[in-house]
Amino acid sequence: MRITKENPSIPTDEGTMLGWFANAIMAGYDHAKNDGRIAKLQSTITAQEGLLRNAREENQCMRETIIQQERIIDRLRRNSLRLATNYKFFEKGGRTTYCRYCGFTMLSGGDEKHQDDCPITLHTQLMNELGEKHA
Asked: Structure pTM?
């Protein structure tokens, strides 16, 4: 009201009225256009939240799997070290040493070459896979 009192010709000025209506129409257009953008953004956010939730669940499953595998590896280490301890059998009075498991004759100072299915061979392969020095 203050504006019309200060400028009484505004309500009858064609250019002013045209500008006023054009602004109102454009404001409605911009609002509708932004509503579409907002809805699209909200939909994108919802989809991304779903992907993030799935990734977190998958990450948790992977952590649980890793923990379980680390426990198995720890048990394998303990079992294999126990297996590899005292596997040599010494013949009384002689210098010949035999493997308790595969019967391989070990000469002093020589490399050990057990049978492929010997627990000592399997232990050595396991420890090599784990990146550890084998017994």
From this structure: 0.46
Nearest to 135 by CA among 58, 64, 51, 79: 79
- Residue-level length of the chain: 135
Q: What is the mean pLDDT of each run of 10 residues along the chain (135 residues)?
A: 78 81 82 81 93 96 93 81 71 70 73 80 79 59
CA distance 134 to 120: 10
Whole-number CA gyration radius for the chain: 41
3-state secondary structure of 105: strand
For 76, the enclosing helix (H) or strand (E) is helix 14-84
Q: Which residue has the tokens 């017994």?
A: 135
pLDDT number for residue 110: 60
> Whose structure tokens read 């509708």?
32
Strands 88-90 and 97-99: antiparallel
